[in-house]
Amino acid sequence: MTILPVIPTSPDQPDAVTTRRRPSMPPRHLADLDLAARKAAVTTLGEPAFRAKQLSTHYFGRLVRDIDAMTDLPAASRERLTGDLLPTLLTPMRELACDDGATRKTLWRLHDGALVESVLMGYPDRVTACVSSQAGCGMACPFCATGQQGLTRNLSVAEIVDQVVYLAGVAASGAVTGSPPRLSRVVFMGMGEPLANYPRVIDAVRRLTEPAPEGLGLSQRHITVSTVGLLPAMRRLIAEELSVTLALSLHAPDDDLRDELVPVNQRWKVAEVLDAAFDYAAQTGRRVSIEYALIRDVNDQPWRADLLGRLLHGKLAHVNLIPLNPTPGSKWDASPKPVEREFVRRLRDAGVATTVRDTRGREIDGACGQLAAGELTEAAAGGAADAEVAQ
Ligand code: SAH
Known about the structure:
- The protein is α/β, with parallel strands linked by helices.
- The chain has 10 helices and 13 strands.
- The chain has helices spanning 35-44, 50-61, 75-85, 157-172, 198-209, 231-240, 255-261, 270-284, 302-312, 337-349, and strands spanning 2-4, 91-98, 103-109, 115-122, 127-130, 134-136, 151-154, 185-188, 223-227, 245-249, 288-294, 317-323, 353-356.
- S-adenosyl-L-homocysteine binds next to strand 9 and strand 11.
- Residues 139, 141, 143-144, 189, 193, 226-228, 249, 291, 293, 322, 324-325, 327, 368-369, 384, 386 line the site of S-adenosyl-L-homocysteine (SAH).
């Protein structure tokens, strides 16, 4: 593990270890707005409308987040624009790298002292950003570090987008050893439940996928939104007609156990959320990813593999098994490898495509459920992020 030096972007701010204020939404940032609204905003500030495109080209096209580096803008304009369109939203507190520099985790402090994390994962053919959509999470899944923490607040559109723009800049600098310099995928598998912050996450997806200078120009298919299964929001997502990849965190094929592992199941049952996931797949023509954290003697029995196989047989779905990453103090552990192999075998025998997710970032607590920032604050922020969704 390497601890990378952190250059504070706001040296005037007091040490964040002790500063946690009342949760509040951050100031507006250009990434909150579409290009038309950015034009309106710059003219309100007394600047010519073309500045909107200029700022946007810097931010989305060249991944420049700091207005002082936009040297083709007159100093007076920079001063006028910075507070209203480019406030600092994310202050890096700590950056860690492992897997020979191919995995990097950033812990951020937000303007109100809340902490969130993002992870950048490099592969030979692609670079993936795992981002947070909320500070904390209200879903209370007992095996997940963020679930233990409760919800602090939703992130703004720009707080989400800025994580990606930052990580795209890191990739572009060539810092991710052995990977292409272009960030190509984003997974909403960091802290939070993306569909509980629905309008902002959808807006962020639009910003990430619109071509520069409007947005970052990523492909919708290369964006994965992961959910515990908030049924009304899943139905709403179907109606958006986006082509993002949907991941459903199932973790149990039966309601008895899922009620415990994913408490929202007490409201929306396995059959209902699977139906919505299959409808999404039918509409987009893209396989949904069924996430299943294998927990020793809890959900890893052969009969559960068979039941899952029956539920998914013939559907446009594949299973992504995640070896449980035990959270501190948890009574649960990952399944032994032979049990995992048997689970995979049974699913494949049922004709269900199945992969076992790699365990990227465990060394830096950057794997699923483990984005723990507890070391930095007594209020112990924590997080869930994730390794990679095998496509
Ligand atoms: N709230 C969203 C995204 C959060 S995390 C969701 O639940 O889908 C992304 C994935 O990591 C989810 O499938 C989540 O259940 C899983 N996860 C969380 N904690 C984990 C842990 N300790 N070990 C393995 N997977 C975990």
